[in-house]
Design brief:
The protein is mainly alpha-helical. The protein is built from 20 helices and no strands.
Length: 462
């Protein structure tokens, strides 16, 4: 397969274009990193917003997200007066970069410092800012829909994905470490200050990334000549395609797993390891995870072309599940750091293969549809994918209520501690195991099949 792929598609992009394309997206994992690790804690523990209100806010946010993602995908697929000059995705990505960053800062700048007696103002503030942030975030994430059309060969996609895993991890580490280093427990101002300082490098990277997301004349021409289907019609078609559903469910489990791990770090350090947040154990966790993920990059890059995207996805998920087993028994810092490092190494595979395997899927549906409409399929995919975001607060809310977690207590009961471990590790691991079994049984886009798809797409000028 590797000997033929360059003869199938000879379009190549410079190293800088590959790097620039990924720089624009650093803000996405950075904002996600801070939200995942700090938002639930900030509103439940710092502002004392009752956990039921926090959970409801997230659920409403998820419902909004269900409409927001496909809407943005559909609108970006529809040609307008800017399409002829700039392309389909470029105007959306550029226009919503700053709103994404600004809304993150405001999420950690609640004008009310105590929601215990009157939760409604803080509750409304949280919902409104989550809605605004998600709208903006979705528009910037259209770069994901841009990826399969811009980078057409397996070689180009693997190269870009290799760079992407580095920039993605850089964004996540910034989103984790900057707030963890700067935030002081009980000091509410430190949260929005940390968010502001986090967004400064993200803004610089975003500017440097603009050249990489520009669409060339061929891409713009295809955008102007191809028709579009209504979103719900596409959704109905997509849900009948087994590979699409299998990959979407797999992505849901990966999202909920990462969200539960990240959102649990403060709870785990404070109430399981029983260390003060000032100990910087949370920072050590992120460094262990990041360094292990970094080490895994050349390993997975070497493995990926040999076994293909499908097997890389499967092996990576199984390794993540296996790595959670010792986490159920570890209660010391060194052991916990080893577990996190194992998880970081295993998750490197799912991060690396994320865009290439999505591109395989887009190639298949483009051939079946007879047209390329990545934006609307991106919207449908994220429509399902975002279930992971909804599941994390639902898991936390139910577990915290059932185990009677007390946000004002210095220590937690044994059952509350077990709840923290369950929400962090074994509940998301079981979800991932379930979707992994479905993926193994259903998803059938092997390397040979994806190669044949590319040949047919070239013949159809798609």
């Amino acid at each position: 397969m590797n000997n033929n792929e360059n003869s199938i598609i000879d379009e190549k992009h410079s190293n800088w274009e590959h790097i620039s394309f990924n720089l624009v997206m650093i803000m996405l994992p950075a904002t996600y990193g801070m939200l995942a690790t700090h938002l639930f804690w900030y509103y439940e523990v710092e502002l004392l917003l009752p956990v039921l209100f926090v959970g409801i806010a997230y659920i409403l946010f998820g419902i909004w997200d269900a409409f927001n993602d496909p809407l943005i995908g559909y609108l970006s697929d529809k040609p307008n007066k800017l399409t002829r000059r700039y392309g389909r995705r470029f105007p959306w990505i550029v226009a919503f970069g700053i709103p994404t960053m600004l809304s993150l800062i405001l999420l950690f700048a609640s004008p009310i410092s105590n929601a215990k007696t009157n939760p409604w103002p803080v509750f409304i503030w949280l919902i409104l800012l989550l809605f605004i942030h998600e709208l903006s975030y979705t528009a910037v994430s259209l770069s994901r829909a841009l990826y399969p059309e811009k980078f057409r060969s397996d070689k180009e996609r693997r190269k870009n994905a290799g760079i992407g895993i580095l920039t993605y991890n850089l964004g996540l580490v910034l989103g984790f470490l900057v707030p963890m280093i700067l935030i002081i427990e009980g000091d509410l101002a430190s949260y929005w200050i940390a968010a502001t300082l986090l967004m400064i490098p993200c803004f610089i990277f975003f500017i440097l990334g603009i050249p990489g997301i520009k669409e060339d004349e061929k891409m713009i021409e295809r955008a102007l000549t191809m028709g579009r289907e209504p979103f719900f019609k596409t959704l109905k078609i997509a849900l009948k395609r087994k590979n699409f559903v299998a990959l979407a469910l797999t992505s849901v489990s990966i999202q909920v797993f990462g969200a539960c791990i990240m959102a649990s770090i403060y709870y785990y350090v404070r109430f399981i390891l029983q260390l003060p947040l000032e100990s910087q154990a949370d920072v050590l966790f992120i460094l262990a995870w990041f360094l292990a993920g970094l080490i895994s990059v050349p390993v997975w890059i070497k493995i990926l072309p040999k076994i293909g995207n499908r097997k890389t996805q499967i092996y990576g998920m199984l390794l993540v599940i296996i790595a959670t087993i010792p986490a159920l028994f570890v209660r010391d810092l060194v052991g916990a750091l080893i577990v996190v490092a194992l998880l970081g190494f295993a998750q490197g595979s799912t991060t690396l293969v994320r865009y290439p395997i999505f591109s395989d899927l887009i190639d298949e549906v483009s051939l079946l549809d007879g047209k390329r409409q990545e934006g609307v399929y991106q919207g449908v995919f994220v429509f399902i994918d975002r279930l992971g975001i909804i599941l994390q607060p639902i898991i936390f809310t139910i577990v915290h209520i059932l185990t009677r977690f007390d946000p004002e207590a210095d220590t937690q009961t044994l059952i509350a501690q077990q709840g923290i471990i369950a929400a962090m590790f074994w509940i998301p691991a079981l979800i991932m195991l379930f979707t992994c079994i479905i993926f193994i049984k259903v998803y059938d886009l092997t390397p040979d099949k994806t190669e044949a798809l590319k040949k047919k797409l070239i013949e159809m000028n798609l």
